[in-house]
Structures are given as structure tokens and as C-alpha cells.
Amino acid sequence: MNVFLNVDGGVVNNNPFDYAQYALMGDYEAHEKTADTANRAVIMVSPFPEPPDFVPDGQPAAELVAVLQALYPTLIDQARFKPAELLTAMDPSDHSRFLIAPQRDVDRVEQTYKIACGLLGGFGGFLDEKFRAHDFQLGRRNCQEFLRSIFGLTADNRIVAGLEGRKEFQLSRDPAKYAIVPRLGDALPEVALPKWPRMRQADFGVLMSRIKGRCDKLAPRFVQAQTASRIFRALGRFGLWFGQGRVLGYVRLAILADLVRRDQIEGWELPDIAGISSDDAHLVLAELVNPAYTFRTPDGIARTTHLSRSIVADVLSQLQVHAGKPFLVWQGTFAGQQVFTLASRKPGWLRSLPVIRQAINLLEVPTID
Prior knowledge:
The protein is mainly alpha-helical. Among the domains are: 1-101, no CATH class; 270-369, Arc Repressor Mutant, subunit A, CATH 1.10.10. The chain has helices spanning 17-25, 64-80, 83-89, 119-122, 129-149, 201-226, 230-261, 278-289, 298-305, 309-318, 354-363; strands at 42-45, 97-100, 105-106, 109-110, 152-154, 177-179, 329-334, 337-342. The strands form four sheets. It has a two-stranded parallel sheet. Strands 3-4 form a two-stranded antiparallel ribbon. Helix 7 (230-261) runs antiparallel to helix 8 (278-289) and helix 8 (278-289) packs across helix 10. The model has no long low-confidence stretch (mean pLDDT 85).
């Protein structure tokens, strides 16, 4: 048996459209593309329609680690999206290239987050089966709409010859065109919009226990593989024992922050706040969960979320009165400035003691945006 290492090709080219196009068309420019002459086409399926997050003004800091952290998601987006190919697919006059992208609207209002598996950089489907089930049904619904309203040619194109005048094959958006792949039989009834899924708290606990189990198995092997020195291995095992809890705590909050941001976990559904959308309120709340910071300020949250300071302040104020809820907000003072965090993350009573507080701060300096 041959053993070898490999990397997913999507790391370099997540959308190898050019290979499909060349195999189908050869010289793309030499083929017909109009609605009455096109005789072949490529359908692009894009599961990641959500725009990338932009870093706040003044970020990243002029430091090596910060720059690399900001560069990594940029490289992913570059591999995922190719503007030249998308622009051609969006051209209504080009009938040799089409695009199916997720669309999710509630009461005719397009939602900010389309697919449930979009969290964690597109790996959210590993968290809960309900996320995958939602996206599968949404994909069926979107594909059905694509066939019904977009994927068609005019009656003088020989591919749809004989369909002229047959209303059941006319595209809903353009009656002058006829469906290339008409919906018939069981494909005719409209697929219902699936309900936005939320992960149960119990399932989130199971997920974290499995992550811990995986860490328990892999971390010692990782340390052992780095050096043959018994001394350094012993130091590495001590470091694992000392820091594993912190690492797992960070991972838990990082995952939770994304679930909260997209309203995908039970128990974190927010009450209505007058004049503020649910998406904006969840953005602010997710920043309080963010493990990168101990405390947050309204100005810092506003910079990160690109929301106005008044919206941030309103959300923080409204979420300080819901005792017993996981999204209860705590307000305090640190280093002479007003700070916020979740009540579940507020400093313990030991930090209120002057000498102990100073000692703890020397070991772990609180981070404030």
C-alpha cells in the first residue's frame, strides 16, 4: 500500500470552471451565446454567495501575525470567487453560461445569511445535520426556480423547437423564452422554503466533548512528533496539561460566536429591539462572545461590525435586563473606561481584590478593543 500526503485542490482553485468550459467548448469565443443560437452551456453552482467580512479601519495592525491572519481569508476568497467568470454568468444576453446561487427570502425580504452551512468559513455543516438538511432543501428550491424562470431559450432556437405557444413551458420571468429542462410530474410542485435551523444546546455540548476527545488523542502525538528529546517532550506535555482548558475554551467561544452571529443556536433568540434589525443585534452580541477580547467597548464593536455607535449602545442597553438568559450583558469599568461583556464572562470576585487583581493581570492581561 502506498501512503502519501495530499492537499485538496480547492485550496488553490476552488472553482475550476475553466477546465469544464474548455472540455465543453474548446475556444469559448468561437461559440454562439445568444438565446436563438446557443447550443451548449455551463451551469455554475455557487454555494457561497455571502460577501466576505471586511476588517475595520486601521486593521490589521502593522505586525507579521496580524497581517498573516488577515491575508489567509483573502486567499480563500480569491480561490472561491473569480469575478470575470461570475460577470459573464450574470450577463442576461449570454446563454452559454448560467449561475445558480443560494437565495432565501422570508415574506419577500432577502435574508442576510442564505445557507446554514456557511458559518466557520463554510465548514458549518460538520456541526449539525440540520444545517445540511436545510441547505439541501434550499438548493432544491433554488434549482427549481432556476429551471422555471431563467434556464431557457427563445422559440427560434432548435433546442426548444416545437414549444412555441405552449404556456406550460414558458419561463416565468420571460415568456418569450422556453424552458430547456421543463419541470414535470413530481418536480412541478414548489419546494417549500425550509425553516432556518438552530443547533440545540445539548448537541453543542456533545460537539465540544467530541472536540475535547479528539484533542486528547491528537495533542500528545503532535508533541511527540516535534522532538525526540525527553525533556522537551515532558515540557510539551506539561504545556498541554496547563493550556488545554484555555484552548478548548477559546474554540468553544469561537464556534459559539459564529452560531450566535447567524442566529443558529437555540436559547440565543433575541427579543425585538425597536428600530434595530435582528441581524444587527446578533452582530453586536456575537462580538461579546468573541474569545479574542476580554472586554468590549461600544466604539470597538462599532468599528468591527460597521454599525453606528448608537445602534451598538442601544443593543447593549436592551440586553442588560434579561436575567437568566445566556445573552445577558454585564457592564463594568476597567482601566477607567466603560466596558461590556456577557454576564457569563464577567470577572470573578477574586479580580475585585486589589493585590490579587494585579497579580492575575500580570499573568493574563485583559484584552480590550
